[in-house]
Amino acid sequence: MPSSRKSSRRNFIQGKTKSLPSGDTATTDSLADWVTDPQEETYLIRIGRRAMACQFQVFLNAGQYAEDSEIAINALDEIDMIEAMLTVYRRDSEVTILNHRAAAELVNLSDPLAELIELSLDLHEITDGAFDITAGPLADLWSHARRSGSMPSEESIRSALADVGSQYVQVDCETKQLRFLRPGVAINFGGIGKGFALDAASNMVRLQGIENFLFHGGRSSVLACGRRSSKRGEEPWRVGLVHPLRPADRLAEIRLFDRALSTSGSQSQSFHHQGRRYGHILDPRTGLPADQGILSATVLHPSAAWADALSTACYVMGPQQAIECCKKHPGMALVLVLPSRKKAGIEIQTCGITPDDVYLISDQRVAVNQQD
C-alpha cells in the first residue's frame, strides 16, 4: 500500500525529511553525474528504492510541485507491486503460479499481466525471435556455467532449447486466459520487466499532475517526461551514455523528452573459457551467448517496455538486422557501439537519431555512421 506518511516539502528540499518509508532514500542533488551536466547548478530531487535487483530512482525539479515526494513514493510502491507479480523467486507470485499450472490447464491472467504477455509476444514476432520471454531455461543453464567456469554441453543446450519458444504460449486476448502448449515451458520477464514497471510508475505520476520528471531502473533503463529546469531555462533531460570499453567515461549525451531509453551490453557480465569471452546476453534462437560484434545497443522509444526489450533484441540480432528493425518502426531510434573495423577504437552506427537527440563527446577514435 502507498505510504500514508506525509513530509514537509520545504524540509524535504532542505534535506531535513525524516518521514520517508524504510528503504527509501531522498536527496537534493546539483546533479547525478550520468543524468545531466556535472557543472549544472540547478537542483533535482532524487528519491530511490531498491527493486527488481537494482536501484530505481525518480528525479524531479526541486520546488516545482506540491506533494512531489509523496507522489514519487507512491510510484515506487507501484513498482514493488509489479515486482511482486512478475518475480520468479517467490512461490506466491502470479508468474510463479502461472508457470506451475499453465502446461496442465487454462490460467486466468490479471489485466496488467495479460497486457505484458501480449506485448511480449508481439515483440517476439517483431524481432524474429531475438526477444523471447520463454528463454529462462537457457538463462539458468548459462548462469550455472558462469558460476562453475565450465561450458554447457551441446546436449544440455539442445535440451534447454526444446523448452524455449513463444510459439508455445497461447493467450486468449478476449478472456485473458493462457496455457502452455508444451510441458517444461515457463516465462520470465527479465528482459522487459523494468521497462514495464517504469511505464506503469510514470503513468501514475502523470495522473497526479506531475509532467516533468525522469525515472530510471538500474540506470540501463530510463524514462523521461517533460523537461528539467536549468540555468538556461527548461530543456530536455540529458542522460550520459557510458563508453562500453571505458565504463568511467561518457561516450555521448542523449537528450530525452517524453521518451524512454534502454542500453544493453555484456562487457560487465561475462566469463572466460579457454581464452574466449562469453557474455550474459543469450540468443534464444541458438541457445548461445550473443556474439554479433556489438559492444552496446541503445534504443530510444516512447515506451520504456519497448525500449527495454528492443535494446536486448538489437544486441542479439547484430547491426544489420537491428537497423532493419529500427527502420520498420518510426517511433524507434537506435545507437549501436561497435569495434572499429579500420583502426583502434570504436564505431557508432545510428538509426532514427537526429542531431538534437545525441551529442557525441569528442573522441578521435570514434567514427559515426548514420544509417538513415
Structure description:
Helix 2 runs antiparallel to helix 7 (193-207). The protein has a ten-stranded mixed β-sheet. The chain folds into two domains: 9-83 and 194-221, no CATH class; 94-189 and 246-370, ApbE-like domains (T-fold), CATH 3.10.520.10. It is globular, with a radius of gyration of 21 Å. The chain has helices spanning 9-13, 68-86, 94-101, 111-126, 136-148, 154-161, 193-207, 304-317, 319-328; strands at 25-29, 44-51, 54-61, 107-108, 169-172, 177-180, 213-217, 221-225, 228-230, 233-235, 237-242, 250-256, 259-264, 270-273, 276-279, 282-283, 288-289, 296-301, 333-339, 346-351, 358-360, 366-370. It is of the alpha+beta class. Helices cover 29% and strands 28% of the residues.
How many structural units, i.e. domains?
A: 2
What characteristic shape results from the CA principal axes? globular
Radius of gyration: 21 Å
Strand content: 25-35%
The portion of residues assigned to helices is: 25-40%
Under the CATH scheme, which class of the largest domain?
Answer: Alpha Beta
Overall pLDDT, averaged? Answer: 85
| CATH fold assignment of the largest domain | T-fold
Let me know the largest β-sheet: 10 strands, mixed
CATH superfamily of the largest domain, by name, is ApbE-like domains
* Biggest β-sheet: strands ordered side by side in the sheet: 1-2-3-7-8-13-18-19-20-22
Provide a count of the helices.
9
Just name the CATH architecture of the largest domain.
Roll
Low-confidence stretches: 1-19, 27-34
How far from one another are the termini? Answer: 47 Å
